[in-house]
Design a protein that fits this description.
Blueprint: E1 2-6, H1 11-22, E2 26-31, H2 34-42, E3 46-49, H3 59-62, E4 68-71, H4 80-90, E5 94-98, H5 110-123, E6 128-134, E7 137-138, H6 146-155, E8 158-162, E9 168-169, E10 172-173, H7 174-184, E11 193-197, E12 203-204, H8 205-215, E13 221-225, H9 227-240, H10 248-252, H11 263-269, H12 276-288
Parallel strand pairs: 1-2, 1-4, 2-3, 4-5, 5-6, 6-11, 7-10, 8-13
Antiparallel strand pairs: 9-12
Helix pairs in contact: 1-7, 6-8, 8-12
């Protein structure tokens, strides 16, 4: 199948492009810079110039004869109307969009409103759409989540756990997400459906950290700390640092259970995610190399 991919030079996109090439798909990847073009071409895709901030630049890319769109570009930046309009104008009917399970948070996160509006734009469109909502994505260096935790666990024997680590997590391996995307785009039963994409079962944050520690050969001492003071300190840190490595919202979400049913994805997509212990051990081994 000839696929048009947005967000192909990002973390998930790089894994998707590699998997698509291995599966024999002909992939066109939107690239807004020379660096992005080099990245996607190195993964077997054909780079097509285009910038989601410039709707006129999308005409050639969306009209390049692709059979389906895989939109991995974040829906949190307000580009959904532009993407949907470009696909509709080009007659590109089949489209799979990546959203996030974070749209279900009870927190007043600014991006939640934008992402929910984006999903509604997709759902009201004339496209044969599918929406995948992954939870926390991990699996390789640069995942912005667990690779940093693995590096921290290698350096320190004691780790504070805000809130005691009692709340549930259900991370998804990036390769499992990429596989789900490629199945969804070729599955008629997925048209008009929204799927949560997560690991096989939830585990507490404490258990997650313990398994990550074992993956790097450590049994860290985990010390529970009150969540509210930790959030206050992190807000001060955010204001003081131009590019904070951790944000208060990330800690606030540790007060919520992030547990999701994957039954629909299992049924319709044959989705079979790997156990977290296996995924995090493979990530740790890759980082060590």
């Amino acid at each position: 199948m000839r696929l048009l991919v947005t967000g192909g030079s990002g973390f998930t996109g790089r894994h998707l492009l590699r998997a698509a090439a291995e599966a024999g798909h002909d992939v066109l990847a939107l690239a807004r810079s020379t660096a992005a073009a080099r990245t996607v071409e190195g993964l077997g895709a054909t780079a097509i110039p285009g910038d989601l901030d410039d709707p006129a630049s999308l005409d050639a890319a969306f009209g390049a004869g692709a059979e389906a769109l895989l939109n991995l570009a974040s829906l949190g930046f307000g580009h959904a109307p532009t993407i949907v309009a470009a696909a509709e104008d080009a007659g590109l009917r089949r489209a799979v969009f990546v959203s996030t399970t974070a749209v279900g948070t009870a927190l007043p996160a600014p991006s939640k409103r934008v992402r929910l509006a984006a999903e509604q734009t997709v759902q009201r469109s004339a496209l044969d759409w599918t929406i995948l909502r992954p939870t926390m994505i991990y699996g390789a260096a640069g995942d912005r989540n667990l690779s940093r935790l693995l590096q921290l666990l290698k350096r320190t024997p004691i780790l504070p756990l805000p809130g005691g680590g009692r709340r549930l997590q259900q991370p998804v391996h990036v390769a499992d997400l990429a596989g789900a995307l490629l199945v969804a785009v070729t599955t008629d039963a997925a048209v008009g459906r929204t799927y949560d994409i997560a690991g096989p079962e939830p585990l507490t944050f404490r258990a997650l950290v313990q398994q990550a520690g074992r993956a790097v050969g450590r049994e860290p001492v985990l010390v529970g700390v009150p969540l509210r003071p930790a959030i206050t300190l992190l807000r001060i840190y955010e204001r003081a640092v131009p590019r904070p490595r951790l944000k208060a919202e990330q800690l606030e979400r540790l007060a919520e259970d992030k547990s999701f049913s994957i039954e629909a994805a299992v049924s319709d997509l044959g989705y079979a995610p790997r156990p977290f212990a296996d995924g995090i051990a493979a990530e740790a081994a890759a980082l060590a190399r």
